[in-house]
């Protein structure tokens, strides 16, 4: 370990601390580390230093500091990115600044966060309503993936898929496998890269590569199809806008725009749209079933504010602040990203008096802020009212950080908030959800992975009118 490095689990030759870092439920282990070693924990991933930030104030401090905004350079973190800094998620430095700004700016121009996106959310939820009207029960976990990915894909690639499209189902399956098997620390293959050659099957490396290659091949094909019909004065979607910039900068050797870069940006947006929003929606149904009184209260409010002759709309939000409080509470109690994706420190620095050398990988627990006992009082209790003041208005809380903190906060936050509000209110206006007869209450403990998801559970659907 480097000199004056934070305390942490013991290190073994070659593998470092990796045997003591669980591949599942890392956020829960980080809670234990906080008690055992303190708020900043030193790890070795093979021969590479890494720091796990487990203390809430330390997480707030670190993720706001400029020097913490890098992403790890080592091979495993970059493998899906053609081993280069590409896209938004796993790039950093001036490349990332330019790509993040470009992506956000043009997604907004294309309708991100505006009425065009809302229209597409409504189209998706109506599709679900139509399907659920035909059913008496449904299996919730994973159910919303095709719809939530369509919302972002409409802006990125100008396309939507039917919910049972085979190709879409295969892509979502590949993503689920990658998200469920992944680890924020890069896992054993990152610590001991030789395993890729010695034991590709056992380490999961081979299967991951197959999924990654299939996804990249799909995005490449979509991009090539766009290129064939590209017209500079008729830009249809984000891919067209990016292609235009790529062509404009084609003679510029320092350009950050390339076909590979576009493939990875598509990957970043598609994956985020498919996994995180879908899992959060499944959690909203889980808590609706477990807390029928909360479900009823939302429905009564919808009846009062919206009625039954029209659909809820974002404009109703100021009069439905309880709904936002419920959605906040779902994202707090079972957040889908309990540990931030790995960051990298871009220079030697100190945190809490410990030395952290340049290029150290950093993982930060968002869970520790969302579940801090001193701050929330009863963090394990599902209680939406904690986000409301005495007049029923939403109270902003600095520790409510499901989308991260600082310059790398989630690029999709506006879309997520709008999607969750419209999906949730429309579903509860139309249906009531309950446990099928004889089924035990579903567990709130999540399925592990890079993001978390609820375990498989079925619910009974009753139409409200
Ligand atoms: C419930 C849904 C979501 C949650 C809870 C969530 C949460 C997060 C978190 C915690 C980060 C990491 C911040 C960090 O690195 O410290 C992040 C980054 C990111 N998210 Fe989301 N996200 C969600 C949905 C989405 C969606 C739908 C999109 C697509 C538009 C998206 C795009 C991104 C991107 C591109 C980044 C990387 C930002 C960067 O490194 O500059 N996310 N998100």
Brief descriptors of the model:
globular; iron; 47% helix; 9% strand; 4-stranded mixed sheet; 465 residues; 17 helices; Cyt_P450_sf; binds protoporphyrin IX containing FE; alpha+beta; 3-stranded antiparallel sheet; Cytochrome p450; 11 strands
Q: What does this molecule look like?
A:
By secondary structure, this protein is of the alpha+beta class. The chain has a single domain, classed as Cytochrome p450 (Orthogonal Bundle). Helix content is 47%, strand content 9%. The chain is built from 17 helices and eleven strands. The protein has helices at 26-37, 56-64, 75-78, 93-109, 115-133, 145-157, 166-181, 187-191, 195-198, 205-228, 238-248, 259-290, 292-305, 321-333, 367-370, 373-376, 413-430; strands at 40-45, 48-53, 137-139, 343-344, 349-351, 354-356, 361-364, 431-434, 446-447, 453-454, 458-463. A four-stranded mixed beta sheet has the order 1-2-7-4. Strand 5 (349-351) and strand 6 form a beta hairpin. Helix 7 (166-181) crosses helix 10 and helix 12 (259-290) crosses helix 14. The longest helix is centred in the middle third of the chain and has 32 residues, at 259-290. The protein is globular and about 65 Å long. The model has no long low-confidence stretch (mean pLDDT 92). The structure holds protoporphyrin IX containing FE. InterPro entries: Cyt_P450 (IPR001128), Cyt_P450_CS (IPR017972), Cyt_P450_E_grp-I (IPR002401), Cyt_P450_sf (IPR036396), Cytochrome_P450_fam2 (IPR050182). GO terms for molecular function: heme binding; iron ion binding; oxidoreductase activity, acting on paired donors, with incorporation or reduction of molecular oxygen, reduced flavin or flavoprotein as one donor, and incorporation of one atom of oxygen; steroid hydroxylase activity. Heme binds at residue 410.
């Amino acid at each position: 370990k480097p000199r004056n490095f934070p305390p942490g689990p013991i290190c073994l030759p070659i593998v470092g601390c990796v045997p003591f870092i669980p591949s599942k439920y890392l956020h829960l282990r980080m809670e234990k580390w906080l008690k055992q070693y303190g708020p900043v924990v030193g790890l070795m991933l093979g021969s590479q230093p890494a720091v796990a930030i487990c203390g809430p104030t330390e997480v707030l401090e670190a993720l706001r500091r400029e020097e913490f905004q890098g992403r790890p350079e080592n091979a495993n973190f970059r493998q899906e990115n053609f081993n280069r800094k590409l896209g938004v998620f796993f790039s950093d430095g001036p490349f990332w600044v330019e790509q993040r700004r470009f992506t956000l700016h043009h997604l907004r121009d294309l309708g991100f966060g505006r009425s065009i996106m809302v229209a597409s959310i409504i189209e998706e939820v109506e599709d679900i309503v139509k399907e659920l009207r035909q059913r008496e029960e449904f299996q919730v976990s994973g159910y919303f993936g095709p719809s939530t990915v369509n919302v972002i894909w409409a802006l990125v690639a100008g396309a939507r898929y039917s919910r049972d499209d085979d190709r879409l189902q295969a892509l979502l399956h590949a993503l689920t496998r990658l998200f469920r098997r992944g680890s924020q620390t890069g896992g054993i293959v990152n610590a001991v890269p030789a395993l890729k050659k010695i034991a590709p099957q056992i380490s999961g490396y081979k299967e991951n590569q197959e999924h990654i290659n299939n996804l990249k091949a799909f995005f490449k094909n979509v991009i090539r199809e766009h290129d064939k019909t590209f017209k500079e004065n008729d830009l249809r979607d984000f891919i067209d806008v990016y292609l235009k910039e790529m062509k404009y900068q084609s003679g510029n050797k320092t350009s950050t725009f390339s076909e590979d870069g576009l493939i990875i940006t598509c990957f970043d947006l598609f994956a985020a749209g498919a996994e995180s929003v879908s899992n959060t929606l499944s959690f909203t149904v889980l808590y609706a079933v477990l807390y029928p009184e909360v479900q009823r209260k939302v429905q009564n409010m919808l009846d009062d504010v919206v009625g039954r002759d029209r659909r809820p709309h974002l404009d109703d939000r100021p009069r439905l602040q309880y709904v936002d409080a419920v959605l906040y509470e779902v994202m707090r109690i079972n957040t889908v990203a309990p540990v931030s994706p790995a960051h990298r420190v871009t220079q030697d620095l100190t945190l809490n008096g410990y030395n952290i050398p340049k290029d150290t990988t950093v993982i930060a627990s968002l869970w520790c802020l969302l579940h801090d006992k001193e701050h929330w009082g009863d963090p394990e209790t599902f209680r939406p009212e904690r986000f409301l003041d005495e007049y029923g208005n939403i109270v902003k809380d600095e520790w409510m950080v499901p989308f991260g903190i600082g310059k790398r906060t989630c690029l999709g936050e506006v879309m997520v908030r709008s999607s969750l509000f419209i999906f949730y209110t429309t579903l509860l206006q139309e249906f009531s959800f309950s446990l099928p007869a004889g089924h035990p209450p579903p567990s709130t403990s999540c399925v592990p992975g890079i993001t978390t998801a609820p375990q498989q559970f079925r619910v009974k659907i009753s139409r409200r009118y």
